[in-house]
Amino acid sequence: MDKKTALLVIDTQIGIIDGPKAGPVHKAAALVSTIRSLIEQARTRSVPVLYVQDVDVAPLDALEFQIHPELAPLAGEVVVVKKATDAFVHTNLHDVLQTMEINHLVIVGCKTEYCIDSAVRRATTLGYDVTLVRDGHSTTDSEALQAEQIVAHHNACLHGLYNIDNFVIVRDSGETVFEPIHDTYR
Fold first, then answer.
1. Facing residues of 108 across strands?
2. C-alpha span between 160 and 157 (Å, rounded)
3. Is the peptide bond before 20 cis (omega within 30 degrees of 0)?
4. Could you tell me if 53 and 65 are in contact, meaning their C-beta atoms sit under 8 angstroms apart?
5. Where would I find the Isochorismatase-like domain in this sequence (predicted)?
């Protein structure tokens, strides 16, 4: 089956990446650089770039709510505002992706154990193959684990996660992540 890919950039808001309340995330500068590079690659390849913003980060008019300026969407790129951890709950994200005929998502953003995990898992149950970029998501330390451990754990447990017809592959940003390799494993 032919795959049509989109880059889904989740919760790369100033208040999460830089803080002060919800961040800064682990290796924030490297994360921004990685995601910025992937956004540029996607745009060059005419791969749609879609953004998700979480209302829990800060009031809508606050600087912390805004998408990080180095990752900001271009005019015409889709921005979905969500209230739940799951980017698909009570949003039009799935409808927008279906209208665009997307069936493969490359996912990056914040925070690993919450919004990234939820989006990755839910996407597979909605019929999308997912490429999670190993070095394209981050979080902060929790009471139980350091951020680096959380990211490593999720990269390990999400790689190969299979939901009937669709699954997750974790790949490094230096790989050709916009070219899905899922069908080679079916």
1. 9
2. 8
3. yes
4. yes
5. 5-147
CA–CA dist 171, 82 (Å, integer):
26
Pairing of β 129-138 and β 5-10: unpaired
Amino acid at 38: L
3-state SS of the chain: helix, strand, coil percent to 5? 35, 25, 40
pLDDT tens string 17-49: 999 888 899 999 999 999 999 999 999 999 999
- CATH topology assigned to domain 5-185: Rossmann fold (3.40.50)
What whole-number percentage of the chain has pLDDT above 90?
94
Q: How many CB atoms lie within 10 A of CB 62?
A: 12
Would you kindly state where each structural domain of the chain is located, as residue ranges?
5-185
Q: What are phi and psi of 29, to 5 degrees?
A: -65, -45
